[in-house]
Design goal:
Blueprint (H helix, E strand, L loop, with lengths): L4 H19 L6 H27 L8 H11 L7 H4 L8 H10 L7 H19 L6 H25 L3 H7 L6 H19 L7
Helix pairs in contact: 1-2, 1-7, 1-8, 2-5, 2-6, 2-7, 6-7
Amino acid sequence: MEFTLVQNGADSIKKAHLCIQNLDDLIEGIDHNLKDAIIFLNHGIEILFKVMLAKRSTALMFTNIKDYQKAKENLKKSNKKDVFEIDPNLQTVSLKEALTRIEYLCDVEIEESMKSAIFELNMIRNKLMHFSINLEWDEAEKLIFTLQFCYTVVCNFFESHIENFNSYIDSARYEYTVEEYYNDERVAEEMYEEDRFGLLDYD
């Protein structure tokens, strides 16, 4: 398994979008698609904010910059892969802190409506991750609207601030099944046999 920071964020955004698309077609199963959409969208936003911070300085991703600096110094003297192998206690910033740093340390303007939607989803995400949740239908409808709005505005935002963002989204979640692989192998073998006996027409 291998994900760069931006691929990781794009993968979660894509998963959230797939779950959001499912909502309009479902009678049963709305709850788990809504849960997945919230968790993955929250994760994707947090990771992509960190992509923006890392563009300015990787140190801005970390809660304690001095601890990161010390781990980075030790990393250069070792054969470890990353700073987390040097110091497992390193912590990256939360979504809210990442947003604040982008606004005030990177001087990137963020619309209030986008911030409000992100914070509302983050609150629901925290309930899902650490406790429980019980929404009436009208509350769920409002949440779905907020989710759809948030997805749209954050995608527009990241498209403006992350190079080739849409390409990362397009290529995320690509899957190639075992059945497809064997079908392709069979077709390739048949074409090879036909070509070997001069049966293919290239004109």
